[in-house]
Amino acid sequence: MKTMIKDVSKYAGEEVTIGGWLANKRSSGKIAFLQLRDGSGFIQGVVVKEDVGEEVFAKAKALTQESSLYVIGTVQRDERSPFGFELVVKDIEVIQDSKDYPITPKAHGTEFLMDNRHLWLRSKRQHALMQIRNEIIRATYEFFNENGFSKVDPPILTGSAPEGTSELFATKYFDEDAYLSQSGQLYMEAAAMALGKVFSFGPTFRAEKSKTRRHLIEFWMIEPEMAFYDFEDNLEVQEQYVSHIVQSVLKNCPIQLNTLGRDLSKLEHIKAPFPRITYDDAIKFLHEKGFDDIQWGDDFGAPHETAIAESYDKPVFITHYPTGIKPFYMQPDPNRDDVVLCADLIAPEGYGEIIGGSQRIHDYEFLKRRIEEHNLSMDAYKWYLELRQYGSVPHSGFGLGLERTVAWISGVEHVRETIPFPRLLNRLYP
Ligand code: 4AD
Ligand code: MG
């Protein structure tokens, strides 16, 4: 077995073999510095002509970017490396010579990099982002498993549309009409009545004609759903979950955050509880700030969310939105029926909404009326209504968008870099 770069600290002073690729290279007549990567990390290999001899040194000097190779060398402590180690190379075995790799160390435009996404993923920055994404997924499973949740997988092919019908990807299911899932929520409600506390993690499809730094056509969502949890309980789970993933990334991805140049002081204090503001107060606040374009009853746009988030150094919950701008399943506030028991969690630094959640209607007659008012098909929602006929209980849940969360925690501008192969308006390649 080859030694992985991330584990070299265990082999200080010893000889190891690494299987990897040449990311970059600098050389003079006497010494060559190889930037090596193996998927687990990056390390510098030092090749000294005097020590390795003519033949190995010539091989090192001839190496081209992204050639695959085995490198045999001794692990040596080095304070300048982010790992604290470098490899003193003894021998090199080239597996494949790479010719004319298109992504050179010089700067490239975004469209060029996106066209070469299958190769761009190998760069140090993209590698760091994928590892942070992986850490958030790992910490998600850890959090929900430790808190008594079961993972449940809702279907991707569905016959109903929980978040409204305008942004659906329609497809054929033999002779029937079907849609790609835009949220697993309704199925997770059924699962919560069977298993109590559940969470899902899966792809979500929205045919949104939005071309912004926050929108993907295909994104991944974590959707927890909890029986007997009310609106307040729901917010507590959310702030504890988000705190856990931020603290886990800080603890387990210091090298990756450093690669991205992330300002850690923006993350260290992200711990529950999070501030809350009602929709009513948010509207007042926006009017005071001079936003005349928004009235009570309107949904917030990105500039509104950013203005609200700027007042806080943690994510902020905006609660109790008007009934008219939220989906049919949300429980109204018991004190006034023009707002619902919902909250969006807005990330700091302009990253926008990362969570949408609510308490769900659990009264059968009331939910039926809502389905009728929204002109939804009673046939498609028959099973969903039945959940309210057989031992209905108050319950709540939420959905966290993975890519927006990765973007915020990593501090990258656009969600396109936070998913391996982004699906965007006008982009289905590669
Ligand atoms: O607010 P949304 O639409 O909520 C739901 O789908 C609920 N059914 C979830 C639930 O209660 N189980 O979406 C949830 C989150 C958003 O807050 C955002 O982070 C992300 O999903 N999201 C997107 N991320 C990237 N691109 C898009 N086009 C997104 N649309 C939503
Ligand atoms: Mg939302």
UniProtKB/TrEMBL annotation:
SUPFAM superfamilies reported in the protein's UniProt record: Class II aaRS and biotin synthetases (SSF55681), Nucleic acid-binding proteins (SSF50249)
Any one Pfam family match given in the protein's UniProt record, by short name: tRNA-synt_2
Key words, A-Z: Aminoacyl-tRNA synthetase, ATP-binding, Cytoplasm, Ligase, Nucleotide-binding, Protein biosynthesis
Stored Gene3D superfamilies: Bira Bifunctional Protein, Domain 2, Nucleic acid-binding proteins
Aminoacyl-transfer RNA synthetases class-II family profile domain: residues covered: 132-430
Main location per the UniProt record: cytoplasm
Molecular function GO terms recorded: asparagine-tRNA ligase activity
Compartments, record wording: Cytoplasm
PROSITE patterns to which the protein is assigned, alphabetical: AA_TRNA_LIGASE_II
Assembly and interaction partners: Homodimer.
Annotated family: Belongs to the class-II aminoacyl-tRNA synthetase family.
Protein name as annotated: Asparagine--tRNA ligase
Annotated source species: Peribacillus deserti
Gene: asnS
